[in-house]
Amino acid sequence: MNNFSFSITIFVVLTACTRATTSTVSPTQTNTNSIVVDGRTRTYTVHVPIKITTPTSLVIVLHGGGGNDDNAERMTGMSAKADKEGFVVVYPNGSGRLDDKLLTWNSGNCCGYALDEKIDDTKFISALIDQMIATHKIDPKRVYVTGISNGGMMSYKLACDLANKIAAIAPVAGALNVECKPSQPVSVIAFHGTNDQHVLYEGGKPKTQADTHERVDQSVEFAISFWVKQDGCNATPQKTEKGNIVSEIYSGCKSNTGVALYAIKGGGHAWPGGVGGTFIADTPTQEISATDVMWEFFVKHPKQ
Known about the structure:
This protein has one domain (3-300): Alpha/Beta hydrolase fold, catalytic domain (Rossmann fold, 3-Layer(aba) Sandwich), CATH 3.40.50.1820. By secondary structure, the protein is of the alpha/beta class. A hairpin with an 8-residue loop joins strand 9 and strand 10 (259-264). It is globular. It has a ten-stranded mixed β-sheet with strand order 1-2-4-3-5-6-7-10-9-8, sandwiched between helices. 28% of the residues lie in helices and 22% in strands.
């Protein structure tokens, strides 16, 4: 096997990029749609609960590098949460040389095709938010974004670029690697394993990396400190430790915003409480559900 084929194989396995053959939700509730941005047809899957009160919240879930919409839905269990709580969830697709595999986001210094082609993913998500508000009776004050890995990095970037449209973000195993000058306060809740080898908790060059671009990530502390200062929160958090979960909750923030960090001691590159990507991927902790905790956080922090 040549080096290129080997790299692609590892990239697929580590990020769980293969599209599932069956859907975990009813096809009557889930639809795949598209929107043209900068001459490119961008696709996304929307899940709408059968019982819903409008206007409602929108949660945007961004897959990791090499993933896709189906992978993000399966890993996070966000559609089941939407059914229970009555919000709309959308799973956008990044871009790549293939239609539905090896997709990435241009989050600043990562990753793959999207970075190489300088894809304007901020413009895509901005247009997607506008379209969702217009077609699904979304409350503009309750638009939230989450994502894992490359998708977590993109979540941070979107909070920087679209602070006027996004109430809160919930990066999982991501890093804030871009110059950030948000126009408004944005609530942030982050989840990160202390033993993550793909996006190091303490920052630096990844120890395990599928993407071929050289990259140095900022630390989790850097991202949290930035948003604590940006949102005008009290500098000292309420810290709680239960099992392997260490939480830091910052209060007193401007405009009803909040900042929170959930560190998973010994945790790897995975969605806490979710499903592992493949049989060799890092095993997600089941001590906490990132999906449940972030939703509780979102509910408390709509945009003012």
